[in-house]
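Lecture notes, unit on protein representations.

Consider one protein chain, 504 amino acids long.
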Amino acid sequence: MDYWIGIDMGTTATKAVLYTGSGAIVATQSIAYTLYRDPSGMAEEAPEDIFDAVVATIRAVSEKLTAADKLCAIGFSAQQHSLIATTSDFNPLTRVITWADTRANAAATALRNADQGHNIFMRTGTPIQPMSPLSKLHWLKHDQPDLFQAADHFMDIKTYVFHRLFGVYKLDLSLASATGLYHLEKQQWDQDILDLLGLSLDQLPEIVSPYAFESGLSLADAQMMHIPPETPFVWGAADGPMSNLGVAAIQPGIAALTIGTSGAIRVMTNQPIVDEKMRTFTYALDETHWVVGGATNSGASVLAWLKEKIFDDRITLDTMTQMAASISAGSGGLIFHPYLGGERAPIWDATARGSFFGLGYEHGQAEMTRAVLEGISYNIHAIAVALEEVVGELKHIQATGGFTNSEIWLQILADIFDMPIHIPDSQEAGCLAAVILSQKALGVMASFDEVTQLVTTRAVYTPLTEHLSTYRELEALYTDLLTHYQTTYGKLSEFKRRDRKSVV
């Protein structure tokens, strides 16, 4: 029997899923790794930890195969915006600087406000933000010049893994399109941006199709992963566009909503569409499919903060959401802004910080929990409003990610969006999409039209009429407060910067 493996190299863990050719899950394995943070905004991972996780997860699921089975291919989805500086022989000079790293905030602000800032965005479709490799490279050049000059190559985490396994220096065009260094129309590295950074073409990987693949593992690596050496490793794409494909959100008006550590909402298009107002991103899935959307830092990580810092850490997330479900819509007038670590869409402000507004003696843990869920949902809806201005009306949402286990959160989203929320049976969107691209790469699947046969719906959450007016009123207050707060985020950030220096 034929089998396929999909790999999703995420921010907190790498997951491997073994599928049949029809998309049925046979086995799964997930391995977590450490995200190193500090008050400066640093958010890094050890590249060898991720490589080891890829190898171990592949082995764990491939051991389910028998001698009579055929492993057709292994496809990859990977986190966006990661950056590793290396020597000429590809030894890392840095850890993986992840999307969550905000140390390039000043560099991003300078680029965004420069004369060429808007033009750069219009050519690349990537918001000029501290998370993007463009801003990270600009920051390294000006704040860590010795490191920047010592680096012969720059790569992302998928390139690192493929180089370790096959000795190649390549990057799929999907991940390339999210770097801020990629010209959307020319579909190649943007030479003007490279000149701005002082980089040469040979310092960046060769851009390849998501359908390209590598084969010819060393015998040692093949044995370590318990797979045949000739197994094709399909390059695949970035995790954002992959989520759309993995939940069959591939038609106009059908949005994919993902909430994990962070969150994003995206719509697929057949051409790159760039937002003149610089609110949304435009990333490639492949040469002819694109996603337009917005990503938020404010996802389940905010709930984890609430659990750890505000509640007794022994309380479970399930208990917290059950408490939230006991509170009426609107949380008794308590409003929460979820910007604990800065924010990407829709405000693109790394200095933004969170707040509860309206706290009274009547509010307790249950109200605070519901307010957090509502605040994250208001923020995502604000992205959706901007998205509709760019790509047209949204009809319904395909949801994926860990948050789909929370019925109360899904209902809150349906109410705030005033739109049905569809939940696919499989929540392994990234891994499934990696297999779909692999099947297309090897000629097993002719077009994405076949994807709908692989994705079935588990549940649909529809808006509750009695909640709509409440959420419209409170969302307007949420937005008004945000407009006011944005005038003070920078001042508070400057105070905190000075305060840290005085402590040191």
